[in-house]
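Support case: 1-deoxynojirimycin complex. Customer-provided input:
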Amino acid sequence: MKKVLKPTLLALSMTMGGYVMASSAMFSDMINVERTAPVSASHWQDDKVKMDAFLDGLISKMTLQEKVGQLDLQSGFRNVTGPFVNEAYEQQIKDGQVGAIFNAYGADFGRQLQRIAVEETRLGIPLIVGHDIIHGHKTIFPQSIGEAATWDLNAVKLSARVAAKEASADGIMWTFAPMADLVRDPRWGRVSEAAGEDVFLSTAIAVARVEGFQGDDLSQDDTIMATAKHFVGYGLSQGGRDYHTTDVSEHELWTTQMPPFKAMVDAGVATFMTSFNDLNGVPATGSKRLLNDILRDQWGFEGFVVTDYTAINELVPHGYARDDKHAAEIAFNAGADMDMVGQLYINHLEDLVAEGKVSEDKINTSVRQILEMKWRLGLFEDPYRYNDEARAERDILSNDNLAAARHVARKSFVLLKNDNQTLPLKDDEIKSIALIGPLADSKSDMIGNWAAAGDRKSHPVTVLEGFKHRFGDNVKINYAKGASYDYITSKEDTKVRDGLGISSIRADDSSLKKDMKRAISAAKKSDVIVMVMGEEQRMSGEASSRVELTLPGNQQQVMEELKKLGKPMVLVVMSGRPNDLRWADENVDAILHAWYPGTMGGIAVADVLSGDYIPTGKLPMTFPRSVGQVPIYYNEKNTGRPYLADNPNQRQEHYKSRYDDSPNTPLYAFGHGLSYTQFDYSEIKLSSETMSVNGELTVSVDVTNSGEFAGEEVVQLYTRQHVGSITRPVKELKGFQKVHFGKGESKTITFTLTAEDLAFYRADMSWGVEPSQFDVFIGTASDNVKQASFELVEK
Ligand code: NOJ
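Agent response - structure generated as follows:
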C-alpha cells in the first residue's frame, strides 16, 4: 500500500534541508533578536491626539448601559476553559452587553461575531477577540515549561512571534499569556504553564514573550495584545492544589512573585489578569492594593485589567463578599476593569452607580482603557483586520512555522542522564530499536495541555513517526505501546474519577498484561530499548494537580520487566512537571526530558536521540527525589543548622536540617542538563577582590568544549551574600549566556556585576545593597559550579 504522508510530514519532506539545518539565524527575520522598545513608541504618541478626540466623542455618546457592556468579556464555545459558559452571548453582543469575547477563534467565526457588534449595535463598537494562546496557536511549540528549559530568549520570543502571526490571521487580537507565576510545587498542574522556580529566568522569559506577542507596534496586523497573568501569588497555592489559598510574606511576594509582573509593565504589556487565589486573606480579584495601589499608582500600568474566569463571582465563596452584587462592587472598585464570563458587571454596575457605590467616572476610566486598546489594535479603522482568510491560509501551519516549532522543541529537551554515552543512538551500529510506551505514538499528547486551538488528531508528529522518518530502512523500529499512563485506581476512586472525566484503569485489567508481553517481545528483538513514558497531557495544566509525582499507571512496572532483558535502555519523559524519576535514574542508561514538545515533537526527539542535534536544555525547575521534599528549590536559605552531607563525622550532623529517610539534595538540580559533548570550566577570574557599591566587577571563566561534537552550553552565574539585614539565599541566579562552541573551541565568558544585580528588599523593605562578603559561582548547573569571593564595600 502506498504510504500517505501526513500534512506535517509532507511539509517536512518538502523542506528537509531547511529543517535539518534550522538555526537561530534562520529565524532572524521572524523575530527582532535585540530587545524591542516598549510598545508606547512614537507612532503611538503621534496618534494620541487623534485617538483622544475620537474616544472623547465616542464616550460622550455612550449610555451607562453601553459603557458597562464594554466591561464584559464572554466566552464562546470553540474551547471550554472554565466551569460555566453562557449560551446567550450572540444575543448579548447584539444588545451591546459585550466588549470582548474569547474561545471564539477562526477568521470566519470572528468575522461573524464582529459583524454583529459593528453592524447590529447602536454605536458599532468592535469586539476584542481573545484566546488562550499559550505555546502556539495552530503550530504548537513546546509546553511553556519546556520553552523555559531552552534558556534561550530568542527561541521563546520566536515561539510567541509565530503564535501571534497565526492567531492574528485567525480572528484573534488578544492572548491570555504569558503566565508568569513563579512555581515551587510540582504537584500544582500549572507548573507546566510557568517558566519555573527562578525569578531571574522567569522575568526574562515573561518579557521575551510579551515582546514576541506584541512586537513593537500593536497596530501592526500580525501582533496581538499580551496578558500578564495571574496577578498575583497563584503559583504558591498551598499543597499544590489548584485555586487554593496563598499565604506569602511581603519579602517573598516582592522578591519572587512581583518582579516578572513589574518587568512586563515596563515592557508595555497591554493587559493584566487577576488571579483566583486569596493572598494573605484578600482575594487578588478584590484587592485594591494590588490592582490599584501597586499596579496603577506605583507601577504606572496604562492598559486594562481583566479578571480570571468568574473570579468576581468567586469572591462570595471566598467569604469576601456577601453576594454577587457586593462582589461586583468590591472587584470594580479594587480596579478590575473587565469581568471574565461572570456577568456581574452587566447585572449590577448600573444599580451600583445609582446607589452611589460605584462612580460613573471610574466606569469612564475603565471604558476608556478598553477603548484605547481597541484603537491601538486598529479596530476602529478596520474591525475585520484580524479576519484574513487568505493570510490564515498562508501563515497558519506554514513550513516556516513548523520549522520554528522543531527548532524550539529540540532546544527544550534536557538530557538528565547519559551513562556510557548511550546517546546518541549510533545508526551505524544499531540495527533495531524497540520503541515502547503510551506516549511513543500519541498525537494528542505531543502538543501538551493548554494548546487551545491546536489540532490533536492529524498534525502532531509522534516519536514513532519521527523515528521512521529519521531512521528509514536502516534501522528496524519495533513499536509496542506496552504500558498505560492512566491512573490505576480502586473501585471507589474509579467512580469519582469517571465523574470528573479522568480516565483510570484497574490494576487487574487483563489488557495491561497483554500490552506488557508485546513490549517484552519487541524489546527482545531489538538492540536498544527506547521508552517514551510520562504523564497524559491532561494530568498537568489547570485543575490537574497530583499528590504523587511518580509515573502514573503501570509504566514503572513495565520498565522493571524490560530491565530484566539487560539491554541498553533510554527513557524519554514527556510530562508537564518534574516527576519522581528515582527508579529510572538508578536503572536506565540515559534519560531525556522532552516535556510536551509540540506539533513537530516527534521529529525533534528523533533529531536529538540520533545526534543530529546536540541537547542544550537546562532544568528551569528542581526535580525532587520524592514528593516529600516539596517545596524544594535551589535558592533556599541556609538555616541555622545547615546539614553537611560530606562531614565524615555524621554524628555531628544529627541535629541538623535534614531528613532521616532521604538526602536533602534533589535528584536533578535547577540548571542541570547534560550535552553529548563536554564543557570544561576554568577557575573564576575577578577584576578585583572588592567591588564598590557604585562600581562594577567583571567575572569571567574560560569554557572549553573538550568533547566530540560542536554544541551549545548555558553558562550560569550565581551569587551569595554572606550576611544581610535579612537572611539571604545560598545561591541566586544573576546571569546566564547560551553560547555555541565548535569542537575543541575555548571561549572566555564574561559577566559584569553592578550594585543593581546584588540589590534586594532589605529588612525595612527598601530596595538596595548592603556591604558584605559575597560568593560568586559560575557553572553548568546550580549544583556544579566554580566559586570565587569578593567584598562589596561602601566606596
Ligand atoms: C482560567 C485560567 O486560570 C486562565 O489562565 C485562562 O486564561 C482563563 N481561564 C481563560 O481560559
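DSSP finds 24 helices and 29 strands in the chain.

Case will auto-close in a few days if no follow-up is received.
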